[in-house]
Design brief:
Radius of gyration of chain B: 21 Å
Oligomer: heterodimer
Helix content of chain B: 55-70%
CATH architecture of the largest domain in chain B: Orthogonal Bundle
Strand order of the largest sheet of chain B: 1-2
Largest interface: A-B, 44 and 55 residues
Distance between the termini of chain B: 44 Å
CATH architecture of chain A: Orthogonal Bundle
Structural class of chain B: mainly alpha
Order of helices and strands of chain B: EEHHHHHHHHHH
CATH topology of chain A: Arc Repressor Mutant, subunit A
Strand content of chain A: under 5%
Largest sheet of chain A: none
Radius of gyration of chain A: 23 Å
Largest sheet of chain B: 2 strands, antiparallel
Shape of chain B: elongated
Structural class of chain A: mainly alpha
Chain lengths: 83, 217
């Protein structure tokens, strides 16, 4: 297992994953994070899963507007423009 | 940051779109509505209790947009302006309906701690050799199950079941691809709170995905 055990535990690391991906960690924190990831299979898989989660959520479709709702809005637009 | 709009006539800038709107171009309005309606409804859901009420708020927002269009001076982006109108309408409605606004959920999401992963997945923090290390490690996911249509449905349900603030943030960031700055502006969130909400939402979706894939392995 990891040689950086005493620096950052797995339980602490999972709470820093979003900060890490958002580039919100300090240089020192980033180094600690990456040192841990480099030596810990469990956390490596975890980080991968978060990345896979983001990718799969990104593939969800955006709810479309119903045709009725869209034509109601377009009617409002026509009304607005003719005023 | 300005993002171009894709209209029937091609890709246009925000300024061009505004000009077309003011000239009464229906395609321009349709473009705008299709682009923002889903996000408007999601954000409105933070303030009002039902999907129907959120759709009402979004519809009212469009009327507000039309009423204000001639006065819009472009000091903020069109998107920020539209979401400000939405937020005002949604808040007014929540007050009128006697609902307590979820201010604390937006302004202090970190007040109640929430673990990304259940504590029982880890060794005890007092463990002599491996404090806080994985007791039950995550297993790599099978690619084919991950990409199955059914898995996407499960994820959509999980997102739908999130608290409204988390649902709004993960939808805008990860489904619609907004930047953190765009989300912060639309929801009037601090940088930290935007990240806390995103973290919680993504962590929950991951956890739900993990248990779904395990059950169906």
């Amino acid at each position: 297992m990891t040689v950086y055990a005493e620096q950052l535990s797995c339980q602490e690391l999972v709470e820093l994953v979003t900060d890490y991906l958002e580039d919100a960690l300090s240089e020192e924190e980033t180094a600690r994070f990456e040192a841990h990831i480099g030596g810990c299979d469990g956390c490596n898989v975890y980080l991968d899963q978060i990345r896979q989660t983001i990718a799969i959520v990104g593939g969800l479709s955006v709810d479309a507007l119903t045709p009725e709702a869209e034509s109601a809005l377009l009617n409002a637009f026509r009304g607005w423009h003719s005023n | 940051m300005f993002r171009p709009f894709v209209t029937v006539g091609g890709v246009v800038s925000e300024a061009q779109l505004l000009e077309s709107l003011r000239a009464g171009d229906e395609d321009a309005f349709r473009t705008l509505v299709r682009e923002y309606q889903p996000s408007l409804v999601r954000v409105a859901r933070i303030y009002v209790p039902t999907q129907a009420a959120a759709e009402d708020v979004a519809a009212e927002t469009w009327l507000g947009v039309l009423n204000g269009l001639d006065r819009f001076e472009g000091r903020s982006s069109l998107r920020t302006w539209i979401f400000r109108i939405l937020t005002n309408i949604a808040k007014t409605r929540a007050v009128r309906d006697g609902r307590t606004l979820p201010f604390s959920a937006l302004q202090e999401p970190g007040r109640v701690p929430e673990a990304a992963v259940d504590a029982d997945r880890f060794q005890d923090p007092e463990h002599p050799r491996w404090p806080g290390h994985w007791a039950v490690r995550p297993e790599a996911w099978p690619e084919d199950a991950l990409l199955a249509a059914e898995t996407r449905e499960v994820i959509a349900e999980v997102i739908e079941a999130l608290p409204a603030t988390q649902r709004a943030v993960i939808s805008l960031r990860d489904i619609e691809g907004w930047s953190s700055e765009e989300v912060r502006n639309a929801l009037d969130l601090s940088e930290t709170n935007q990240r806390v909400l995103l973290h919680r939402a993504r962590s929950k979706v991951r956890a739900a995905l993990e248990s779904y894939l395990q059950e169906n392995a």
